[in-house]
Amino acid sequence: MSSNVTVVKRAPDSGSVRAFLHKLAVGDAVAHLITLVCAASIVLITSVLVYQLWTNSALSRHAFGWHFWTTQAWDPVFEHFGALAFLYGTVVTSVIALALAVPVGVGAAIFLAELAPPQVSDMLAFVIDLLAAVPSVIYGLLGIFVVVPFVRVYLAPFLESALGSLPLFKGPSYGVGILTASLVLTIMIVPFIISVSREVLLAVPREQREAALALGATRWESTIKVVVPYARAGIAGSIFLAMARALGETMAVTMVIGNEPRIAASLLAPGYTIASVIANEFTEATGSMYLSALIELGLVLFLVTFILNGLARLLILATEQRGGSHA
Amino acid sequence: MLRKTLGCFSLLVLVFSLTVSARAQSHDPLSLNAAGATFPYPIYSKWFDEYRKAHPGVEINYQSIGSGGGIQQLKAGTVDFGASDMPLNDQLLGTFSFKILQFPTVLGAVLPTYNIPGVSAELKFTPQALADIYLGKVTKWNDPEIASVNPGVSLPANDIVVVHRSDGSGTTFVWSDYLSKVSPEWKSKVGSNTSVNWPVGLGGKGNEGVAGLVEQTPNAIGYVELIYAIQNHLNYGTVENSSHKFIKASLATVTDAASGAAVQMRQDIRISITDASGANAYPICSFTYLLIPAKIANATKRDTIKDFLHWMLTTGQTQVEILHYARLPQAVVGIEERQINEVQ
Lengths: 327, 344
Known about the structure:
The complex is a heterodimer of chains A (327) and B (344).
Chain A: H1 2-10, H2 15-56, H3 58-64, H4 67-70, E1 74-75, E2 80-81, H5 84-115, H6 118-133, H7 136-163, H8 178-202, H9 206-214, H10 219-230, H11 232-248, H12 251-256, H13 274-281, H14 288-326
Antiparallel strand pairs in A: 1-2
Helix pairs in contact in A: 2-14, 3-14, 5-8, 5-11, 6-8, 7-8, 8-11, 9-10, 11-14, 13-14
Chain B: H1 2-26, E1 30-36, H2 41-54, E2 58-63, H3 67-76, E3 81-84, H4 90-93, E4 100-115, E5 124-125, H5 127-135, H6 144-147, E6 161-165, H7 170-182, H8 184-189, E7 202-204, H9 206-216, E8 220-225, H10 226-231, E9 238-240, E10 246-247, H11 251-265, E11 285-293, H12 299-313, H13 330-340
Parallel strand pairs in B: 1-2, 1-3, 5-9, 6-7, 6-8
Antiparallel strand pairs in B: 3-11, 4-8, 4-11, 9-10
């Protein structure tokens, strides 16, 4: 007892323990500070970005107001600027690309994570990660040399003869256009969806599958009713990532979309996207109104990404609540 | 942990101080910064390199970020001089807080290229035909406007696919400036700029994008830069000039066009040389410009820039044709030599 007391009493006097405790406290504080700075930098970058877009687009915002969102004109000579045609092209190409890429990507991920032999799965995963790292200009070249001729010679005539009564597939096709851009975007974003979804599916605990199987589910039933719902949030994350890439893609899209700021009913007609027009015209934009309008387009893209991300999140939330009520 | 952090910091400080001292050393020779147009970048980088060899200690860094970017940087004072494919008009000059002098350096030309299955002949284009094709008024290849000046060529009754540049560019400026001069309708409806509101057509990115689209799309017509056409052996048509002769674009016919405009350039150096007079003048061409502040406070920089301008007009001009740029005619060189004296 007495020895214990002496130890307790002597402990604060001991230099080494004190230094150790002090070090720990300082180390924690430093780590806390460093990670806080990292987190704060994200907020800072976002606010600087919005602030810059907002102030530098002042000229155009004041001149056009809300009409900027509702007019199709894009005339650098007479300085009439509107975002509608670019907005349309951006949203339509991204939505079509997602509609095509999500089933393919999630399907492939389920196969790789659940059904394929591990060696095959690992090998394919390696190839998919390679695809995800290919620079977009390469996809643009693939678009020009493969997708554009394919659309002009085979797909467009086929669509026109089969579904030509719909305005969606009417009119002449030059190969380049909204549909071609959507196809190239699809090819670009599928690897993202597969790669992330596969990882998420693989991370589902073994017990979940075993429990399903023990209850008499077949392998497919356990996959589709237990594993996929369990990984839903992660799969949704992969889709957000893919959507962000599709909305902001510049190079590959501008190479195959035809770059015409017009809204046409036909998907075979040329179009334009926000990211493409900024990349195309920013370097040679001379007038201050012209420059300001291009920057306001950046603001529009920012808001569109924000809104679409929000909508997608709401959708996920809704399905999750429904799933919860079933369970 | 603390020691490690301190070690990291001291390493960072060391690296930083090394970088600073390295930068300080590189500032010992005179270093000039310039930014602007991408079209003359190959010849500018050759010039700056040759000039550095002839004048050790003078380093000119050129960033080819585009004419618009060059103008912005010059306005902000982050570069010593700028470069633009498009002459600065009074409205744009009014946005500067200081006076700018514009020096033409080399010439470029723009020409029509096309892909009509079954037609290998060199087509002739009247100014009216080019304007009406790009306005969307002439829509078939066998339209009388095209066919009447191309007797003996069997043109198909196919729809013309019009291709233009999608990126803002000096090439588009020259093309639309030319069409504005030859067609009042083009001037009032579309006008001229580095990018315009095209009545019809598809956009391709860069010369290679336009050439690629034309090559891939049957019945297409597009416009590309002369240097690009020479280097890639493209077939292109002739264009009727103001003396009613059909001229094929070449370095010689482009220099001829500039000679024809030299008289007017004495009044205003920024004069557009599209549709220039002269029997052998190719009508769709233009200068590209260096933008030099008229007042340069730093005497060393001022003298170096003036010396470079003089060198560019003499020795520099002998090097341009290797890179397929058309050289300045002697009359224009004289006008510019006089303008150098205005830099103070």
